[in-house]
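Thought: the user wants the 3D structure for the chain below. I'll pass the sequence to the structure tool as-is, report back what it returns, then summarize two notable features.
Action: structure_tool
Action Input:
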Amino acid sequence: MTASAQDLLPADLAMGTVMLKVGDMRLMLDYYERALGLVPLTETLGGPVLGRRGVPLVHLSQAAGLQIPSRGEAGLFHTAILFESRADLAATVATAAQYDPRRYAGSADHLVSEAFYFTDPEGNGVELYVDKPRETWRWDGDQVVMDSLPLPPQAFLTGNLTEESVSGQREAAAGVGHVHLQVGDVPTAQAFYVDTLGFEKTAGWHGQALFVSAGRYHHHMAMNVWNSRGAGPRKETLGLGEVLIHVPAEDDVLAAADRLRAAGVGSHHTGAELRFEDPWRNRIRMAVVAA
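Observation:
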């Protein structure tokens, strides 16, 4: 059954800043600046906000005394940073690999995108990726066709890294393209993120992962059980602090608040902003994009 427009998140939704609770601020700040080429933009709530060209991407919030979560707990799988060109992507893949080759976790051609994976010093996953042209994406009805094909990193760098992209790395645009979570089970994730919150399902993966989006993007969020099957609600740990979702209008926030209320999900609603938690206590904030 097709959902009505009132039941869906707006097509022009975008992912915003990901907040990470960090134990060693010096080490984490060094990684996000030097390995990923992000620039400190502001200082707020106990820690810096970093981004590119004035666009905030990651907020590092000091959380002394908390432990790094175990591999099997619910929480963040990765924050995915989207670049505008292969050359821009190659520049940051190169600096990330040079910073500490041990933090490189793999690469893949997903048919809709080309992606490289890293792990930050406190175990948070980071994806660096570029989208392929939308006209090349293949859809099977309302499901986008994705895969994980080989993407040799050295060949990618050889073919795309330029002196200009390296020298202009910090001036190159980037944004949070999607956020991927670890959850306890996929049906509960679908009931929350699709049936209640209003994303549309764009892909699944053998009952082990769910990909969701607004406006027929390949995915704005994803949830998997690859490490975390059966995980319960999160403890207070380092790692994911908050995921921000940008919507264009207060009506979008109101509609989401109504859907959460109807499903019995608690939330805090201030008009232009909505705060709530998913079934695993991953914190989500939905806010109207400032004009």
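Final Answer: Structure generated. The chain has one domain: 11-288. The chain has a mean pLDDT of 96.
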